[in-house]
């Protein structure tokens, strides 16, 4: 059998090309740090590696989303902390203003300080984040959610919804609370609030109301107390019922709720006591009532009684508003804690993905794997050099060299 010179050259060239291809393949693996560089290296592993990489990318996106959610919730918590401090300061001023030894000028000074706190709360209610979005406007976060009209009343013009964000595959978390929830609501556990009629002519003041029996069939309802004075006798009715004799300083009980009245009522005077949810729940309205009564001098006994009753109502409303703000703040804290838990779970998931991907692609970061790859690289290099040497030797095998 004759073997032509062309055949020997082609076989030698094919061998060199094969050895060079293997050598370059191992070099690419070392440079990339993994054994599977191209899908052709291991089609099944490459396909699974793509899926794992996509899962890692999705997990990272959720991680970025949690960073944004954490920033928003942290800003809200900071604002709520300031609001709760402001309400606590307002309560301190109201307690001080209820001191009978103060003059009207003293109370006017307290009103000035209270107005400053009021303006601070309005500013906090219209607070924005680092991107200029208003925190408490719901989805309408492009403009201030609280607007003061010409009469000085503060109205909410934001959205009743709350902004939510997908922080994990199965968790869509609220990253803010709307202004109604924070500044115009009270917690469901808030008790009763009493408020005297604005036009009362007597000097009756109240303390309470206090819950004494939640099992009473009438508990949870609202009650209207009205006074009648006729023939020197003073009576009262509850929700238009039968008249009962009024006794100064004696508690009046209705539906498991007790309220104590002191003073002498005038004919037609009245007051209402009801669940806090059905009375004034607007924090701004509470500030306005307090400012109005502290700014006006009280000369008569009826005016002083009206001031004391208003301050008593305002104090109860401030208590309810503070409880509500603290409850919302606790909810924000719980969501921040949940983000930490989700972060920990996602971190473990990401580590599992990384380990799986390393196993699929043949990660060379381990010393043993790297040493094996270097050994193979050296072997392929020797093979290529041998093929090149063989080609040089075969090229020299010609009769023309003997002439």
TrEMBL record:
Domain Flagellin N-terminal: residue ranges: 3-140
Q: Name one Pfam family in it.
A: Flagellin_N
Indicate the principal place this protein occupies in or around the cell: other
Q: Which SUPFAM superfamilies match?
A: Phase 1 flagellin
UniProt feature coiled coil, ranges: none
Q: What molecular function terms (GO) are annotated for this protein?
A: structural molecule activity
Cited InterPro entries: Flagell_FlgL, Flagellin, Flagellin_N
Q: Which UniProt keywords apply?
A: Bacterial flagellum, Cell projection, Cilium, Flagellum, Secreted
Q: Which family does it belong to?
A: Belongs to the bacterial flagellin family.
Q: What is this protein called?
A: Flagellar hook-associated protein FlgL
The species this protein was found in: Alloalcanivorax marinus
Report which gene this protein is encoded by: flgL
């Amino acid at each position: 059998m004759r073997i032509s010179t062309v055949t020997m050259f082609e076989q030698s060239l094919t061998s060199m090309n094969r050895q060079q291809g293997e050598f370059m393949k191992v070099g690419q693996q070392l440079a990339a740090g993994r054994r599977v560089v191209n899908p052709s290296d291991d089609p099944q592993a490459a396909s699974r590696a793509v899926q794992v990489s996509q899962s890692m990318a999705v997990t990272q996106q959720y991680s970025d989303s949690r960073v944004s959610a954490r920033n928003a919730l942290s800003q809200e918590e900071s604002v709520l902390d300031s609001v709760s401090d402001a309400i606590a300061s307002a309560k301190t001023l109201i307690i001080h203003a209820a001191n009978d030894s103060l003059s009207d000028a003293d109370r006017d000074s307290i009103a000035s300080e209270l107005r400053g706190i009021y303006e601070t709360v309005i500013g906090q209610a219209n607070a924005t984040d680092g991107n200029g979005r208003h925190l408490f406007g719901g989805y309408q976060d492009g403009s201030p959610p609280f607007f003061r009209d010409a009469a000085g009343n503060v109205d909410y013009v934001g959205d009743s919804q709350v902004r939510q964000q997908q922080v994990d595959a199965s968790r869509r978390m609220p990253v803010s609370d709307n202004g109604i929830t924070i500044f115009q609501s009270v917690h469901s556990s808030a008790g009763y609030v009493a408020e005297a009629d604005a036009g009362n002519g007597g000097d009756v003041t109240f303390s309470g109301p206090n819950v004494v029996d939640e099992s009473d069939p009438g508990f949870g309802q609202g009650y209207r107390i009205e006074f009648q004075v006729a023939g020197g006798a003073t009576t009262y009715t509850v929700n238009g019922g039968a008249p009962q004799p009024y006794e100064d300083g004696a508690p009046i009980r209705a539906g498991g709720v007790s309220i104590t009245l002191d003073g002498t009522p005038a004919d037609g005077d009245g007051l209402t006591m009801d669940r806090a949810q059905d009375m004034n729940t607007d924090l701004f309205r509470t500030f306005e009532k307090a400012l109005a009564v502290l700014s006006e001098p009280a000369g008569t006994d009826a005016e002083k009684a009206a001031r004391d009753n208003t301050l008593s109502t305002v104090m109860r409303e401030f208590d309810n508003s503070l409880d509500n703000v603290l409850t919302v703040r606790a909810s924000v804290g719980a969501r921040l804690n949940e983000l930490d838990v989700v972060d920990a779970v996602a971190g473990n998931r990401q580590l599992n993905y990384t380990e799986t991907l390393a196993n699929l692609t043949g990660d060379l970061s381990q010393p043993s794997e790297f040493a094996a790859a270097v050994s193979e690289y050296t072997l392929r290099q020797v093979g290529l050099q041998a093929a090149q040497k063989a080609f040089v030797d075969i090229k020299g095998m010609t009769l023309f060299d003997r002439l």
